[in-house]
């Protein structure tokens, strides 16, 4: 083998080694402080090992969330069938398709570290207060740090029912763009009326975007 050929092989080996090291470094950076996901990353689990029932007791009491909806009428959205997540308020399992079946539902997808989400959540709570029980506003926390989610909701004074979905299975099933906050409007028959990958500042903005899609006057 000529000298130039040997140097070519060495250069190729070095490039491969650098590529492997860079890939490993990026993999290590896919989680933020305390194991939380960063924007754009997808967690491999719904919640942290530290978020045991005992550890979540005080944050749950502080957040004082409304109960997650029980099974509705009908089979629910086909895309969501088989997805079972935890109700952040009390730890009970929720079959998502059944929970939204037969009722107009606004799914609000967020994470505790998301600034625009924190600005939007009180508006979602106000929208729910205005629209009443005819529409269900259900928030979906998309990070494995459930404790942080509960503390953020308590801080904001938002008591909406919340699903803990650290693996973002709901967003994946509904093909929601990888942005937060995002809102999915579901009709009572389970069909998707609209996906809104944007933030809202007020309850009026939410009503203007959502109500015409589900027949609210």
Automatic annotation (TrEMBL):
Residues 73-215 form the Thioredoxin domain. InterPro entries: Redoxin, Thioredoxin-like_sf, Thioredoxin_CS, Thioredoxin_domain, Thioredoxin_ResA/DsbE_sf. Pfam families: Redoxin. Residues 30-73 are annotated as: Disordered. One of its GO terms (molecular function) is oxidoreductase activity. Keywords: Cytochrome c-type biogenesis, Disulfide bond, Redox-active center, Signal-anchor, Transmembrane. One of its GO terms (biological process) is cytochrome complex assembly. GO terms for cellular component: cell envelope. Residues 30-43 have a biased composition (Low complexity). It is found in: Cell envelope. This is TlpA family protein disulfide reductase. It comes from Mycolicibacterium rufum. The lineage of its organism: Bacteria, Bacillati, Actinomycetota, Actinomycetes, Mycobacteriales.
């Amino acid at each position: 083998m000529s000298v130039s050929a040997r140097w070519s092989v060495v250069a190729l080996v070095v490039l491969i080694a650098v590529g492997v090291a860079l890939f490993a470094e990026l993999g290590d950076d896919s989680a933020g402080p305390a194991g939380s996901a960063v924007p754009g990353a997808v967690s491999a689990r719904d919640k942290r090992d530290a978020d045991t029932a005992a550890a979540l007791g005080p944050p749950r009491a502080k957040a004082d969330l409304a109960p997650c909806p029980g099974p509705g009428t009908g089979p629910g959205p086909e895309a969501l069938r088989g997805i079972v997540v935890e109700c952040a308020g009390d730890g009970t399992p929720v079959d998502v398709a059944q929970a939204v079946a037969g009722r107009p539902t606004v799914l609000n997808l967020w994470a505790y570290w998301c600034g625009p989400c924190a600005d939007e959540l009180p508006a979602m709570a106000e929208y729910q207060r205005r629209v009443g029980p005819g529409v269900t506003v259900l928030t979906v926390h998309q990070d494995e740090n459930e404790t942080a989610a509960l503390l953020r909701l308590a801080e904001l004074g938002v008591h909406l029912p919340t699903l803990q979905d650290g693996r973002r299975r709901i967003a994946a099933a509904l093909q929601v763009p990888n942005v937060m906050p995002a809102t999915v409007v579901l009709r009572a028959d389970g069909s998707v009326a609209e996906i809104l990958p944007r933030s809202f500042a007020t309850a009026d903005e939410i009503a203007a975007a959502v109500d015409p899609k589900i027949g609210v006057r």
